[in-house]
Amino acid sequence: MVRKLAFCAAGIGAATLLASGSPASGSSASGSSASGSPESGSPESGSPESGLPRYSLEQLQRDVDAIRDTGTTGVLAQVVHDGRSMKARSGVADLRTRRPVPWNSYYRVGSNTKTFIATVMLQLVAERKVKLTDTVERWLPGLVKGNGNDGSKITVRHLLRQTSGLYDYVYYLPQDVSHTPETYRKVRFRSYSPEQLVGMAMRHAPLFPPDERRWNYSNTNYVLAGMIVAKATGNPWEHEVHERVIAPLGLEHTYSPGSSAYVPQPRPVFYERFTPGGPLVDVSIFSDGYSDGGMISTTDDMNRFLRALLGGRLLSPALMAQMKDTVPATEWQVLYKEAGYGLGLAKRRTSCGTWVWYHGGSMFGVSSVNSVSADGRTSVEIMLPTQPGEQKAKLAQLTAANDLTDHALCRSR
What we know:
There is one protein chain. Helix content is about 30%, strand content about 15%. The chain is built from 12 helices and 17 strands. It is globular and about 55 Å long. Strands 1, 2, 3, 10, 11, 12, 13, 14, 15 and 16 form a 10-stranded antiparallel sheet that branches. By secondary structure, it is an alpha+beta fold.
């Protein structure tokens, strides 16, 4: 879930590299992957379409170290191209023990959950159980009303594309109203029903009337989308995501924690700097299992999901075209060139001029940054287990992460 969070300001630790498999704790490896990726600098390692050298393990390590240097306690990144995987890590998982970031770390993937929800919704559209033109009022009568909010004018497409104009409920959450370590500790086990979350948004007037081309990112949209999935199927959204996406793709380390506040081991410690210059606080325990950003996963599973989605394994070409029908995501264009938002999936232009698809997510103490090529052949997933205390530091961290994704995607064509 996208919250008012920021990134840490001091990078630490030595880097280690994973070529294939998982080296022993603290060790490093370099060179070719087990799947036969050519070594950096060999004649066959060029990317014929881009004219650039093939992205190598060494370059991945340099890019991961550059992210660490922007101020995160640790980094874990994975690049997959045509089934061949490279991983690199840098920094530490725990400031106290100085242990390395686990290769198979679990972490909260935040708003990447929206892409799972949108995929399930479009599968329901294919089964004629839901229409993109259905209104919220049709599925959830009487829920979206008051202060100018009107569920009879908001469609499923509005929700998935973030064009409903609904206010974002997160700004009424205690941890956002008072973003302090004391508030975090007080509310970290607190959970809400979807109806309660929507009710928070209803306290505020909509930002604009529902409009197919006017965009504003609001987590409220995907709380409602999860509720519609449940109403249309008779099952919780978690059940549908598992049966339709997680199980078919073999995502053995992806799930929704429900009201549990814990991320399983192995994982790094998730840190947050609540104020610029303030101390890093361990925020690893936190309850947030909602349909707008509650899922937990790994770099392996996230990459598998993204490649399967863009590779056409989950949606028909016609529905994939609906998902890719974007509107300008103006606020995101500060960081993502020509960013546009479709149905739970965003696009941006890379430094080499190609379009790639992504979503990403940000939670207490952790961010996920990703991108996948339009054909699903190449994907990148990065886990950043630190949120700093100022916007400048956050932008520096995300810019370095985007540099990594650009290097990997542009040199793997």
